[in-house]
Each structure stands twice: as structure tokens, then as C-alpha cells.
Amino acid sequence: MGESRKLVTGVLALLAAVMICGQSAASPVPIDNPWLNQRGILNMAHQGGEFEAPSSTMYAFRTALLDRGADSLEMDVNATLDGRLAVMHDYYTSKITPLDAQVRNLTLAELQALDAAYWFSPGTGQFNHSKPADQYPLRGVRTGDLAPPDGYVADDFRVPAIEQVLDSFPDVPIN
């Protein structure tokens, strides 16, 4: 037991050293990894900044990078009924859309037809569903009932597929 513990401790120390240094001293090839080569602290937009924009939408991701100083993005994915990966924090749609369903029971097309800004209210995110309708300023952009902000389109307010996010931000570290 004592030898096993020493071995595990040694392996953990080696892993920690590699993570801190960014690469092994014995590595002949430099590691080109934005996570390891980043200097300083990464400003990571959780869900694209769920208190400033509708959670995990392309609008949220773009405004986080362009307007709010983020240099990396954080997101979660869920599998849809048709086996696609949708970028969405929760398993249930009711936190951000007017529909109460599980992501796994919808196709990507059905999920993307929903208004992912329906419950967004600046400063509170999608956490308060009891405000008057005028407190949800982006409600209806996805469905065409409201014009999108300049430089954006209705599709920026839907739940994106993972491919769309990765293709749109090829040089941005994504967690």
C-alpha cells in the first residue's frame, strides 16, 4: 500500500508540473495549445454571459467576445432526439423557451425553432419567469415578432448546434 501511494503521489506531481509548465521539459515539439500558452487569466463567458444575454445563443457568444471582453467561451451540450449536439445549458427547455420539454425528446430542428431568448431579462438572466412581458426585451426576435439588434439575425437567438459554434469561433478557447 505504501509503494502504491508513493507511485500515485509521484504521478500526480508529474501531471501538476506538466500542467503548470505547459509542456514537458523532455518534449521536443512545443505545444500549441491556447489553454496552456495563455498568459494571465482567461476571461471566460459562462453560457456566453447568461446575465447579460440569452444563455448559450450565438448572440450571447458574439457579444461576450466583442462587447464584454471575454476571450474564451464556456458551454454545455445536450443530445437531441436525432443524435445532434445542441449547445444548451439545461436538459429542459423551459428555463429559456416557452416550451416545457426535454432536449432529448426534440430534434435539433424542433429545438432551433424555439425562442431561446423568451425568458431572458437583463441582470437576472433566465431565472425569473414572473415579470411582465415587457421585461423580456429580446422575446420574439427568434420568431420574427421583433427586429434583431443591429448586426444580428433571428437565428442568433436560437439554440445553436455545436458545429455552428465551433465553426464560428475557430480561434477562441472553448470549455
The fraction of residues assigned to DSSP E strands is 5-15%
What does the radius of gyration come to? 20 Å
Q: Low-confidence parts, pLDDT < 50 over ≥5 residues?
A: 11-25
Going by helix content, strand content and strand pairing, the class is alpha+beta
The count of helical stretches stands at 5
Number of strands: 4
Fraction in helix: 25-40%
Reading side by side through the largest sheet, how are the strands ordered? 1-2
Write the H/E string, N to C.
Answer: HHEHEEEHH
Quaternary organization: single chain
Q: What is the approximate shape?
A: globular
Largest sheet: 2 strands, parallel
- The end-to-end span amounts to 37 Å
Q: What is the mean predicted local confidence, pLDDT?
A: 86
